[in-house]
Structure formats: C-alpha cells, structure tokens
From TrEMBL:
<keyword id="KW-0812">Transmembrane</keyword>
<dbReference type="Pfam" id="PF00593">
    <property type="entry name" value="TonB_dep_Rec_b-barrel"/>
</dbReference>
<keyword id="KW-0406">Ion transport</keyword>
<keyword id="KW-0408">Iron</keyword>
<feature type="domain" description="TonB-dependent receptor plug">
    <location>
        <begin position="75"/>
        <end position="178"/>
    </location>
</feature>
<keyword id="KW-0813">Transport</keyword>
<keyword id="KW-0732">Signal</keyword>
<comment type="similarity">
    <text>Belongs to the TonB-dependent receptor family.</text>
</comment>
<feature type="domain" description="TonB-dependent receptor-like beta-barrel">
    <location>
        <begin position="251"/>
        <end position="671"/>
    </location>
</feature>
<dbReference type="InterPro" id="IPR037066">
    <property type="entry name" value="Plug_dom_sf"/>
</dbReference>
<dbReference type="InterPro" id="IPR039426">
    <property type="entry name" value="TonB-dep_rcpt-like"/>
</dbReference>
<keyword id="KW-0675">Receptor</keyword>
<dbReference type="InterPro" id="IPR000531">
    <property type="entry name" value="Beta-barrel_TonB"/>
</dbReference>
<dbReference type="InterPro" id="IPR012910">
    <property type="entry name" value="Plug_dom"/>
</dbReference>
<protein>
    <submittedName>
        <fullName>TonB-dependent siderophore receptor</fullName>
    </submittedName>
</protein>
<dbReference type="Pfam" id="PF07715">
    <property type="entry name" value="Plug"/>
</dbReference>
<dbReference type="InterPro" id="IPR036942">
    <property type="entry name" value="Beta-barrel_TonB_sf"/>
</dbReference>
Length: 700
C-alpha cells in the first residue's frame, strides 16, 4: 500500500498612459453598491488615495494594470497575454482561496491535488507557479520549501495574471507567468462595511473593511481590513480557522508625492495532512503497477495530531514622486516573515517547524521622452531580494499527541540582485517593447553539517511588437526568457539548479467599439529547463528536476453590459511534454495537465419588475482528461469532469428603503458535488465537494 507522507521534507504538500484614471475596488464598489440598476459605462475618478498597483476597471473589464509593464499601459496595448480578476468579479464569486479566484482564468490549472487547503498549488500553461509565480503588489513573495504565504481573498483589490515570462522586469519568476495580488489600499472617500458569513461545515466568519481620510486637509488616508473565521472542512480532521488584519496608510502631501504603508498579519490553522490512503500495488521505484481503487475514503492522518498552524506577517511601503512630466521615481520595499508548525501521523508522529524571513526592494525611474515622432517610456531599475529559512523536522513512534524530537535541520539563504531597463516605444499605431535584465544569485545551503554553496548569473529579456488599430483590434508577437532560483535540495542532495525558460507568443486583442467588452486570443510555445517538480519515489514525495515544453492556445472574453449582464468566458488548449527526466518519460505528457479546459460565468441583475435588484449568477468549469503520472499509464488516468457554481444576491433596500446598504448573498461552488478522484505524480486525491456560503453585508 502506497501512502503519501504529509511532511517528509514537507515539500510533499505540493507534490508537486498617465492620463488613465485609477479606480480602486472600494470606490468602484460604492458606485456599484446600487447595482440593482446596472449603470451605463462609466469611469470613477479620484477615489483612490494611492496609485501603485491599482487596476483600472469597469465591472468585469479591466482596461489597465501596472503589473504587466510596471507603467500605466492599457491592456489593449500590452503585447503579452494578460487577464485581470477585478474587484467586481471577487465580490460576485466570493472566492475562498487563490485557487477559487483564478479558476475562471485561461491557462490556470487548479485542483491537481484535489482538496488541499494547505497550499495554493497551481500551474499556468502547464508550468507550476506555486513557489515562483505569486507576487504581492509587484514584489515577489518569497517562499521556502514548507513556508508559503497563505492568501486571504477579502484583503484584495484584484489580481493581475501575466502569462509567459516576465523576468526582464521582475527577475526571479516562473516561465508560465506571474500572478500579482493587489492589496486593498486607502480611499479618498469614506468607505465602511461589515459582513457576517455562515455556511458548510460549521462556517462562521465576521469581517470588516474601513477606509477614508484621517485629516481634514486630505493628505492622510487609512484603511483597515480584517476578519475572524471558525470553520471546518469536508475532512473532520482539517480545520479552516484564521484571524486576519491588514492596516494601510497613505500620505499624499502633494499631487506629485505619495507614500503608502501596507501591513498584514494572519494566524491560520488547517490540517497537517489532507490526503487519503491510496490502495494500489507499486514497483520498486514506487510507481503503480496496477490500480484497483486508487484513493480510498480512509483519511491518511490522525485527527488527534493533525494541526498545521501558520503565523505570517508583512510590512512594506510604496513611494512615488513625480519630478515633472518627464521623470517619475518609484520604490517598493517589503519585509515578510512566517512560521509554521505542522503535525502529521504516518506510522508514528511527525512534526515540521519552519521559519522564513525575506526582504524585497524594487526601485525604478520612469522616463518619458519624445524623439521626433516617436514616444518612449523608459524604465530603469534595481531589484534586490534576500530569503533565509530554517526547517526542523522530527519523526518517532511515540504516543499520539506527543511532539517528536526535531532531529533534522536544514537552512538556506538566497540573495538575488538584478538591474533592468525597458523601453516602450510608440510610433503611430505601432507599439514596441524591449527589455533586459541581469541577475546575480548567491545561495548558501546547510544540512546535517554539509554545505552546498553556489553562485549564478543570468541575463533575461523580452521583445514584443504590437499594432493598435483605430477600431480596437491589436495583434502582437512577443518573445521572453526567464530565470528562477529554487529553494531547497533535489533528490540525491545538493542545491537545485536554477530554472530557466523561454517563450514565443502570438496573439490578438479586441476591445469592441461602443461596448464594455474585450476579446483575447493567444498562441504560445514555451520551454522550461531544470523545472522542480514533486513525484513519488520509493513511496515518498521527492524533488526532481526536468526539462519540458508546453504549446497551446487560449481564448478569453469578458464583458459588463448596461443591461445588467456580465460575462467571463475562456478556453485553453495545452500540450505539455517532458523533454528530459528519465528515458521512459521523454515525450510523455506532463502529469495532471489536460489538453482542454473551458469556463463560463454569467451574472445578471434584474432591472425592472417585482424582482428588480435580484442578482442571479451561474458558472461552469470543464477540465479535460489527463494522466496521473509522468509515464502516462492508463491505469492512473484522470477522467474529464465538469463543475457547476452558482450565486444569488439581493439588495434589501428594494424591500424597505430603511434597509439601504444591506445585501444578502449566497454562493455555491461545485453545486453538483463532483468529488471524483484526481491523481498527480503517482498519488491520488479527491476533488473538493459542494460548498455553500451565505453572507449578509452592510455598507454605509
């Protein structure tokens, strides 16, 4: 019987232009609060106290985000594939995790490990982005093998997803792309809300979000967001509890200078293991030879010793000063830290304690100039980051509930320094983007008295050309490379090789004239070398490195129409193949990456009649078949599946004007309770079943 060890090296959990108007989510939410009558297309001005990282959006349709180029560039004119999860989408779908939030985004594969609330493990275009693809407010989110920051979606303005390499300006990041999580920021106008939730598995949650000016001269603004949750999950031994608080301050002494402080603290507890016992025979290498049951419904851990507590915090600032129309200086800096205490049972009791600390700073100068008929937006910057972590682990056949002696220790420090320059050239309808960056990496790793040090240096770049027509059509072609250091070790000892990659993409974007609607299409061909993945070896999850190639195309459409209808639709075709791992796996499809994925979300608000103000929404997500191991054996194949989601909401002021500001909403995910088996890297799990969350919110 093969069984997943929930914490041996803890990595097992993953098996794996300036004229644009900035619209913060809270301000937009105030306008959309009366969404009982859908507003005509409108842009809200002057609501946000801060600028960095803001998203310009109208309903479901984003028109600009700084995440793609670090400058105010319209999405239409950005020659690379970009998707945005707007504040309105977050409010309508009520995602409970990062995986929920990106599940309707093209190219994003979520659910490869079934139901597992411990980590936000997912891939983009077949490339894992869990460790190296998640950014927060334009800065990389430093992670260690067992220390990955957990996300609270209630603390977000929105999410920008840039598919394909972005290392030319961001440095260490995944070839598949980056997911930039945009934190809530202070607003110019007062904004206040409280919300209570209840739902499946005894869920109880209270949340608040308060913002507005502090001083009468409108130079200092605040925001305070927080929640407390006590909840279970479909596995009795796995909790979903957390306490979260996120303060923010913006000081804007002049129109040219802005300083924003962003903080967060979260204390969260879930399960040390969320796996089920697998029942199939294996060969000497731990690979399945025959499959009779796969994942059983027998929990692999012990509820008496299964808590996984994580305490995390971050504090940072964003500074911007515009000297004149030509020069703007920006700096972002963040310090972060987290500590984990993970309990599990596998024959005996296991314990992993890990702490990491990281500091990331990015300083760049934006220069706008004109040479003849050509406009340039030049970005030159310096990016420095440092990660340190210590992991201690222990295991012993001792009474359940007793902590084993922590007799294994590993620690690592990584320092990454990069300088970069980017030029966005605009001539008539043509848009040319050229960028390059050089990184220096040092890594110091120590375990059991053995030291493994390495130094690497790498140049990455991006070149893209687009043409923007007067009627909203914008074809483009782009090429980019990536470079990513890997924390931890690989099978056999030693520090993992840095991961490198490259991609060619051809696409077209179309903003429908006279409509708040956009269509996007892209064809891509990428290669990644020395990618770190997890697979079962000798009945234990281990790190291995492989070369792979992923090819495919994506389609996406979003719209928010004046008649009360919002639409989000996508289709993805991905063919991810192993180029180098073992002779038996060369040319095989990468585990758990389906050829086909598609999604559709429709949201409608009744405009007239007795049901005026009633919001009705429904979504469908299709995930095609895939293989459960890298040998592509039919005995461990994942069948295609379809998930249905739904939502209802109603503004109670339509019943009684005295109830203005109250909204009742119910969201259901996986409405038909599709909880079949899903296998990845030789181990099988179960999808998360039906979940219903009801909320009552009051805004004033």
């Amino acid at each position: 019987m093969l069984m997943k060890v929930p914490a041996v090296h803890l990595r097992l959990a993953l098996l794996a232009s300036s004229a644009l108007i900035l619209v913060p989510g809270a301000a937009l939410a105030q306008v959309n609060e009366a969404r009982t009558i859908q507003l005509d297309e409108v842009t809200v001005e002057g609501q946000g106290a801060g600028q960095e990282g803001a998203i310009t959006a109208n309903g479901y349709v984003a028109t600009a985000t700084r995440s793609a180029t670090k400058t105010d560039t319209p999405v239409l004119e950005t020659p690379q594939s970009v998707s945005v999860v707007t504040q309105q989408q977050l409010e309508d779908r009520k995602p409970q995790s990062l995986l929920d939030a990106v599940s309707y985004t093209p190219g994003a594969r979520v659910g490869s490990y079934g139901f597992d609330p411990r980590y936000d493990a997912f891939s983009i275009r077949g490339i894992d982005v869990t460790y190296t693809g998640v950014f927060r407010d334009g800065l990389r989110q430093v992670n260690s093998p067992n220390g990955l920051f957990r996300l609270e979606p209630y603390g977000l303005e929105g999410i920008s997803i840039l598919r394909g390499p972005a290392a030319s300006i961001y440095g260490a990041s995944s070839t598949g792309g980056i997911v930039d999580l945009i934190s809530k920021r202070p607003t110019f106008l007062p904004f206040r809300e409280v919300e209570v939730q209840t739902g499946s598995y005894g869920r109880l949650q209270g949340a608040f979000d308060l913002s507005g000016p502090v001083t009468s001269d409108n130079t200092l603004f605040y925001r305070l967001t927080g929640l407390v949750r006590d909840a279970g999950t479909e596995i009795d031994a796995v909790r979903d509890d957390r306490a979260y608080i996120a303060p923010a301050l913006t000081w804007k002494p002049t129109d040219s200078t802005t300083l924003t402080l962003l903080g967060e603290y979260m204390d969260a507890t879930t399960g040390g293991t969320a796996a089920y016992i697998n029942n199939y025979a294996t060969d000497a290498a731990g690979n399945p030879t025959s499959l009779s049951v796969g994942a059983t419904r027998v929990f692999a851990g012990d509820p008496r010793y299964n808590d996984f507590r994580q305490q995390q915090g971050r504090i940072g600032y964003e500074f911007e000063h515009r000297f004149n129309d030509m020069f703007t200086l920006r700096q972002r800096t963040r310090f972060s830290a987290l500590g984990t205490n993970q309990e599990y049972v596998y024959g005996g009791s296991g314990l992993t304690r890990e702490n990491n600390w990281g500091i990331v700073s990015d300083t760049h100068l934006e220069t706008r100039l004109r040479t003849g008929d050509v406009d340039h937006t030049i970005l030159s910057g310096l990016d420095v980051s440092r990660l340190s972590y210590v992991s201690k682990q222990g295991f012993g056949v001792i009474p359940i509930g007793t902590d084993p002696v922590l007799n294994y220790r590993e620690e690592q420090t990584q320092t990454l320094t990069g300088i970069y320059i980017q030029d966005q050239v605009k001539w008539q309808n043509w848009r040319l983007t050229l960028g390059g960056r050089h990184d220096w990496l040092t890594s110091e790793y120590n375990t059991a008295g053995f030291e493994y040090d390495r130094d690497d240096t790498k140049f990455t770049g991006r070149a893209a050309l687009g043409y923007v027509t007067d009627f909203g059509l914008a074809p483009y072609v782009s090429y980019g490379t990536s470079f990513t250091p890997n924390p931890g070790t690989i099978l056999g000892g030693g520090v993992a090789e840095p991961t490198t990659g490259e991609q060619v993409e051809v696409g077209v974007k179309y903003d429908l004239p006279g409509m708040n609607a956009s269509l996007r299409a892209a064809v891509f061909d990428l290669r990644q070398d020395n990618a770190v993945v997890y697979q079962v070896v000798d009945a234990t999850n281990r790190q291995v490195q492989l070369d792979l190639r992923s090819q495919g195309f994506e389609l996406e459409g979003v719209a928010s129409l004046a008649e009360g209808l919002s639409v989000q639709a996508s289709y993805t075709y991905t063919d991810a193949r192993i180029l180098k791992l073992t002779p038996e796996t060369e040319g095989k499809r990468l585990t758990s990456v389906p050829y086909h994925m598609a999604s559709l979300w429709l949201d409608y608000t009744v405009q007239e009649g007795p049901a005026r103000g009633l919001g009705i929404a429904g979504g469908v997500r299709y995930v095609g078949s895939s293989f459960g191991d890298n040998l592509n054996r039919p005995i461990i194949e994942n069948e295609p599946r379809t998930y249905l989601d739904a939502a209802l909401r109603y503004y109670l002021e339509n019943i009684d004007p005295s109830l203005k500001g109250l909204r009742l909403q119910v969201n259901a995910s996986n409405l038909l309770d599709e909880d079949g088996q899903v296998c990845t890297s030789n181990y099988c799990y179960f999808d998360e079943g039906r979940k219903v969350v009801a909320s009552l919110r009051y805004r004033w």
